[in-house]
Automatic annotation (TrEMBL), chain B:
Keywords in alphabetical order: Cell cycle, Cell division
Name under which the protein is recorded: Cell division control protein
Length: 325, 341
């Protein structure tokens, strides 16, 4: 334990956490409110909405859109829905912007979904590119680039499906993809270990780029160890729920089954708490930094060094006028 | 004069026909053909192996990263002979790897429907032969287990498309195989939505209501309909719980016993398929689905014949048939006089 680095002040940021974790020593903008943009992608039924509500500890998304039988066979086109929640994480104020993608993968033909998400991600990059090139820039510019893309995988127990591979391959260079296993309480501990191994093996074989907790500072031994631990946990096995019961005076979030009770925040039952901590505390800066310094820069280089006809066809009007101005 | 009572023999003895039929049946055995339709990872092979209490099929899901992703739905039948108390069954399980697994699943049901219809067609062809076999080999699909995705709110667009088509050609039993991630409340809500949506789309499931159902049949069928879709958990693993051996799944927070009725509908599904409605499944396939297929096929052949006759009579070239070609080859029909059709 290094002295004075903050590790000696352990905190339990979430009231549901079982474990208290070291206070993050990498936070900036503690008072202003750090904007953090997260996109949730996955077929319906994998627990995206429940995850969001569990993460924000409140019912951000309520009810369901489809309420009658006549709608069942209609494949709703994918939409982008925005939610903003102010979070207080360990003294740090975070403006959490969630972009949900209901309709992804729910139709019979889902090939358009990837293109739509890719266009969305690139549009946010384009907006920043345009803004950077303005003569008079807006200091209150709203950066809506996605800092983390949580991709929900179905708990089949086999390997990745075609839609999983296609999506992560195409978007790995545009956002920090964090693969997540939804409804992971469907798998036994042994099945989960094997499933995680197969998924990571698939990811390597198909050269998919996911956020693999890179070590930004090799000297920081604790961080290096933490990153290697987190790398071994990928993909995160998540169980979300909104039911709270009282256990010995403590509020506990659970899923009640006839054969037992799953505790959402218990590290032995799910990786939810760990993931929450990664997103809102320990790696929030790493994720933001990589988006700016690596992903955006790569996009910018591609865009600006491409030939002008490609530029004219693909670039939004905002960029063309900004560069010309 | 009084006749001694024991000379009057009012007992005829035709009630022994049930034993005679049983003896015949035991000698012959029977065929049972079940098709499994659902995306990979829904628990198809584990469920079927659990129902029949033996390892009948292997999972066809992708396990290794080197395995290629299937581009179409394949049909993979596996046949085994099972025996129980002298009764032999030739059990064919037809798996459909690749169904619903692509990004674009348009038409993924076509190979499945084609397989089912092909079995009807093969049976019809054998039946129509002038010298047909005494007992025609029955490869017709008697039951289709359709696997629903737990966690969805109800039917998905793909489910609606496929169920509409499947229920026209075979007996469909919808199941949720991996229901251990649904709480009891979630299951109840899910079943309710599914029933509403099935009713809205007029999708007819087995068991079908019939006017000559006896009262106890009606009651039993009503209780089956209440349970549909069956929320089950399958397992081939035997685990020890408090000294007892059970078939189930061991989670970090508890153990699921697949035979426990409070944990899942597994026992109800097994009893329904094998202990109460097995002969119905086979009979209804023959009397309802096969008959419908047969009627439409013979009609098509009759119309085709009529067209050809009309063309020959008018001396012109035979007309191009406007309807779909019948699946049974017309040569088989050559010896059938038109009147019969």
């Amino acid at each position: 334990m290094k002295e004075g680095s903050g590790e000696d002040q352990n905190v339990a940021p979430s009231m549901y956490s079982h474990v208290s974790r070291p206070s993050s020593h990498r936070n900036k903008n503690a008072r202003k409110g750090l904007p953090f943009n997260v996109m949730l992608v996955g077929e319906s039924g994998l627990g995206r909405k429940t995850f969001l509500n569990t993460l924000c500890e409140s019912a951000v998304i309520t009810g369901s859109e489809v309420t009658n039988a006549e709608q069942a066979h209609i494949a709703e086109p994918m939409q982008f829905k925005n939610y903003t929640v102010e979070m207080d994480e360990d003294g740090m104020k975070i403006i959490l912007n969630i972009i949900d993608t209901p309709g992804f993968g729910d139709g019979i033909d889902n090939e358009q979904c990837f293109m739509q998400i890719q266009e969305y991600l690139e549009l946010q990059f384009d907006n920043v590119l345009a803004e950077e090139n303005r003569i008079k820039r807006n200091t209150k510019f709203n950066d809506s680039r996605i800092h983390a893309l949580l991709y929900f995988i179905s708990p089949t127990g086999h390997s990745l499906r075609e839609i999983d591979i296609e999506l992560m391959k195409r978007l790995g260079s545009r956002a920090n993809i964090i693969p997540v296993i939804g409804r992971s309480d469907s798998l036994t501990p042994r099945e989960l270990v094997l499933f995680k191994q197969r998924i990571m093996s698939d990811i390597v074989t198909h050269s998919i780029s996911v956020f693999n907790f890179p070590d930004l500072d090799d000297e920081d031994e604790d961080a290096v160890e933490e990153n290697s631990e987190l790398r071994a946990m990928l993909p995160f096995a998540v169980v979300g729920c909104e039911e709270v019961i009282n256990e010995d005076g403590r509020p506990v979030r659970v899923r009640n089954y006839p054969w037992g009770v799953v505790q959402v925040d218990n590290d032995e039952h799910s990786d939810f708490d760990r993931l929450r901590y990664v997103l809102l505390n320990s790696h929030i800066s790493d994720l933001r930094d990589r988006t700016q310094n690596e992903l955006y820069e790569m996009y910018r280089t591609e865009k600006l060094s491409g030939n002008t006809s490609v530029l004219a066809n693909n670039t939004s009007q905002a960029v063309i006028s900004a560069i010309g101005a | 004069m009084s006749a001694p009572a024991n000379d009057v023999q009012d007992y005829v003895g035709f009630d022994t026909i049930t034993q005679q039929m049983e003896r015949k049946f035991l000698k012959r055995g029977f065929n049972l053909n079940v098709i499994l339709v659902g995306e990979s990872g829904m628990g198809k092979s584990t469920l079927v192996n659990s129902i029949f209490a033996s390892h009948l099929i292997d999972t066809q899901g992708r396990r290794a990263a080197q395995e290629v992703i299937r581009k179409t739905t394949e049909i993979a039948p596996v046949t085994q002979m099972l025996e129980e108390n002298g009764v032999r069954v030739k059990l064919t399980i037809v798996d459909t790897p690749g169904f619903g697994d692509q990004c674009n699943n348009e038409g993924c049901w076509v190979p499945v429907i084609k397989y089912i219809k092909d079995q009807h067609a093969a049976y019809l062809e054998r039946e129509l032969k002038p010298n047909r076999e005494r007992i025609i080999v029955d490869t017709r699909v008697h039951a289709c287990l359709y696997f629903l995705n737990p966690g969805s709110r109800g039917l998905r667009p793909l489910d609606v498309e496929v169920l509409k088509r499947l229920t026209e050609v075979t007996n469909v039993i919808p199941v949720i195989a991996k229901s251990d991630s649904m709480t009891i409340e979630e299951r109840t809500a899910f079943k309710r939505h599914i029933k509403e949506e099935l009713a809205f789309h007029r999708i007819m499931l087995f068991p079908y209501a019939s006017d000559d159902d006896a009262d106890d049949d009606r009651v039993l069928n009503a209780s089956i309909r209440e349970l549909i879709p069956f929320a089950v958990v399958g397992s081939e693993e035997v685990i020890e719980v408090e000294g007892k051996l059970i078939r189930g799944r061991r989670h970090g927070w508890g153990v699921i016993n697949i035979f426990d009725e409070t944990h899942s509908d597994f026992v109800h599904l097994r009893n329904f398929m094998l202990r109460t409605h097995l002969s119905d499944l086979i009979e209804v396939t023959s009397q309802r689905h096969y008959e419908q297929f047969r009627t439409s096929q013979l009609r098509q052949i009759k119309e085709l014949r009529a067209q050809q006759a009309a063309a020959a009579a008018s001396g012109g070239a035979p007309p191009v048939p406007t309807q779909a070609q019948p699946q049974v080859p017309i040569s088989v029909m050559q010896h059938q006089p038109m009147a019969q059709v």
